[in-house]
Amino acid sequence: MTGSNMSDALANAVCQRCQARFSPAERIVNSNGELYHEHCFVCAQCFRPFPEGLFYEFEGRKYCEHDFQMLFAPCCGSCGEFIIGRVIKAKCEKPFLGHRHYEKKGLAYCETHYNQLFGDVCYNCSHVIEGDVVSALNKAWCVSCFSCSTCNSKLTLKNKFVEFDMKPVCKRCYEKFPLELKKRLKKLSELTSRKAQPKATDLNSA
């Protein structure tokens, strides 16, 4: 835009706040393409100029930092200061003090409350699992609880095991089962595999 065209544009421009025209010699404030008289570019609440030009905008109106905080910003429950930015709400009143915390849907929880509300419950001991979770047989298990239901030997997902009475049985114990029982378990496993395709080890490979 040439100087002549710019002068013509300013001659036809009006202040965003008062809708009056600008005089040729006055200073004009340009805020994101919106033009203001210098005395019109003020806080919508206290009508004072913005310190260092800093302002916050809400629903089309501009506010200085102090008035924006007083009108709209929440207070931190710990330090009492106004919060500008992301707000995290806590479940209990105990400070985290550097300890681990968990967030879910904008809320913050200490480890105890998070586990109580959202943690996996071990199928064997019925306690909320703290730490790693073993997911097997469509259930959750503590690492220490995931063991053969017959001999109590510890199992991992790398071990071969079969499901019996909704619990894992290691390969060694399975081999000791009566032949008729193994046949029934094999048939049941095949039927279940066709219907739900579970992740339990196939009896043919056990």
TrEMBL record:
Keywords: LIM domain, Metal-binding, Zinc. It comes from the Eukaryota. Residues 13-74, 120-180 form the LIM zinc-binding domain. GO terms for molecular function: metal ion binding. InterPro entries: LIMS1/2-like_LIM1 (IPR047944), PINCH-1-4-like (IPR017351), Znf_LIM (IPR001781). Pfam families: LIM. This is cDNA FLJ10044 fis, clone HEMBA1001088, moderately similar to PINCH PROTEIN. It comes from Homo sapiens (Human). The lineage of its organism: Eukaryota, Metazoa, Chordata, Craniata, Vertebrata.
